[in-house]
Amino acid sequence: MSKFKIFVDGREGTTGLEINERLQKRDDVEILQIDPEKRKDASERKKFINLADVVFLCLPDEAARESAALAENPDTRVIDASTAHRVSEDWVYGLPELSAQHRREVQNAKRVSNPGCFPTGFNLLVHPLVKAGIIPADLPVTCNSVTGYSGGGRALIERYENPASTDRETLIAPNLYALSLNHKHLPEMKKHSGLENAPLFSPAVCGFSRGMTVCVPLFAKQLSGKNTPDTIRDYLSGYYTGQKFVSVMEKGYEDREKPNFYYRGINPTACNHTNNLEIFVVGNQDQILLAARFDNLGKGASGAAVQNMNLMLGIDETYGF
Questions:
Q1: Annotated catalytic residue: which of 117, 206, 215, 271?
Q2: Cα–Cα distance measured from residue 151 to residue 202, given in angstroms and rounded to the nearest whole number
Q3: What number of other Cβ atoms are within 10 A of residue 60's Cβ?
Q4: Residues of the chain with pLDDT > 70: what percent?
Q5: Is 215 a residue of the active site?
Q6: Are the C-beta atoms of 188 and 251 separated by less than 8 Å?
Q7: Number of C-beta neighbours around residue 243 at 10 A
Q8: Torsion of CA 45, 50, 51, 56, to 10 degrees
Q9: Is the pLDDT of residue 295 over 90?
Q10: Arithmetic mean of pLDDT over the chain
Q11: Which residues pair with 79 in a beta bridge?
Q12: Does residue 227 carry a pLDDT above 80?
């Protein structure tokens, strides 16, 4: 049986390394290997890009645009892990669970933009509720998130994992960032959630390597109709029925998770090293909290990219996981 030819452009970065690691365990793909000394040579990269059945772009935005322009073979499919094409009309947004249409588009696409980690959680929480009219499209929405430091790439990983670091206490504590409230993921969160306005987004990087939670608080009185955590949970559970990687957790599931003797909670690392995303709906009759947890390097990056590759090649989306 012939193997699919795969080229990872930018395999030295965090996402590229993880994609390679996932694919090396498979017997249905051949990973094309560029000479390390020529990895920045445009003509050499162009040759590999056009030899491949699927190309992963694991590059900074501008470099990703340059590499995408090198793909001239009409049979070559491209999956871009950068933010460069996530709101482009010419690229398919690679979050197949959003709707049956999104899934069909990924399956038939030649150009797929892999979602960002934070927008993956946010859009899976919010899009179905906006689509159903439960969240009014013009509602001002906030989003709070915590993530492991691996999402910051090699430089941040080295800072956190340096045994000689003199600021361990500072690093271990959650650090709020993007304080200008102009995070680069906002256009993606607005467009693919269906909201008319970008959310007020407040992320924090924490002293664990990988894993994340994305939270969206809602006031019941601002929603359309009479809604409670139970009605929202039931709606989302029905919406995601049959999905292989997205699950809505049953009522009270969070009670089973006790990170210490005093508090129950939702541990952001529980889905690590999987492509799973778990949705929680908690609260009371007045206030509702939506939460998604997943691996920022799994469903938030490389796992989603490989899932999209499977769909584009007509392979079972769960293969290799």
A1: 117
A2: 15
A3: 15
A4: 97
A5: no
A6: no
A7: 15
A8: 70
A9: yes
A10: 94
A11: 56, 112
A12: yes
Token code pair at residue 75:
């049979």
Which tokens hold the place of 28? 């249905």
For residue 166, pLDDT over 80 is answered with no
CA atoms within 13 A on the CB side of 270: 17
Which structural domains are found in the chain, ordered by start? Answer: 4-115+301-312 (3.40.50.720), 117-296 (3.30.360.10)
What spatial distance separates the first Cα and last Cα of the chain, rounded to whole Å?
Answer: 21
pLDDT single digits (tens) 3-30: 999 999 998 889 999 999 999 999 999 9
Query: 105: helix, coil or strand?
Result: helix
Reading the block at residue 307, the tokens are: 């899932």
Q: How many residues does the chain have?
A: 321
304's CB contacts (< 8 A; 6+ apart) are 94, 95, 114, 115, 120, 275, 298
| pLDDT tens column, 73-131 | 999 999 999 999 999 999 999 999 999 999 999 999 999 999 999 999 999 999 999 99
- Name the token pair of 38: 């020529």
Using an 8 Å Cβ cutoff, are 68 and 81 in contact?
no
User: Please, what is the angle between helix 153-161 and helix 14-23, to 10°?
Assistant: 90
Structure tokens belonging to residue 310: 């499977």
